Amino acid sequence: MVRLCHQLALECEELPRPFHRQVLVLGGRRVSLPYEFLVPCLCIEASYPHHDSPRSKRCPFRDQPAAYGPELWSSVRFHDYSASGKDQMAMVLSASCPLRPRATLCWKEAVAEAAPCHDVPNSTASEEEQAYTLDKVDVHPQLCFRFSYGNSSHVECPHRPETAWNVSVSTRGLQLRLRLTSSVPAAFSAALCQRRGGQCEPEAPLYTVTQPEGSAPGELALLLPVQVLGS
Fold this sequence. Notes:
Blueprint: E1 2-7, E2 12-14, E3 22-23, E4 42-47, E5 55-58, H1 70-74, E6 77-80, E7 88-94, E8 102-108, E9 117-119, E10 126-128, E11 131-135, E12 143-149, E13 152-156, E14 165-172, E15 175-182, E16 186-190, E17 193-196, E18 199-202, E19 207-211, E20 218-225
Antiparallel strand pairs: 1-2, 1-3, 1-4, 4-5, 6-7, 7-11, 8-9, 8-12, 10-11, 12-13, 14-15, 15-20, 16-19, 17-18
GO molecular function, one term: interleukin-17 receptor activity
Domain Interleukin-17 receptor C/E N-terminal: 24-220
Protein name: Interleukin-17 receptor E
């Protein structure tokens, strides 16, 4: 008898339906076993059909780069618990393989799935039992987690469209006009930056506008002079 399974810490767990079958293989015959995702913990287990027979197991994909690609992340389910009211980004992972990826924040240029996501410095999330959290963060649909494991990474954004603040940019002569909306008292800062490689490095000065405590929610405007072409 042969079957596919997912190797966990102490046991090889049966694949979910409809990939959970065991097949009797007669001597000299070949058999094909379907699976949903190619992942590093996918193993092949063989045993004789009689009761309590020894089992032989091989896990051929642990060292295969293909097992650490897009299919690995497709096999993971992401449960979003981020909440603007708690000032916290939070995501829980459910995976068929025992993964402990590293999680940091990045900012997506647009909501589109293929949009680039730029890393946020010093933003490593804490992890406990596959729950990743980062406190004192304003939740925003374009502020996302980047999960990294081995040489592979995946970007997962908050699943709720709610946000405590938003910004849009327009040009006025040699000025950039930032239109900020906020439902909570807050201070906003902005600076011009110069693109160098894949990053945009901020340049002095820093411009700030504040919506004080006790004021009604509304719009704020921030003007930035465009001092250098290409900023």
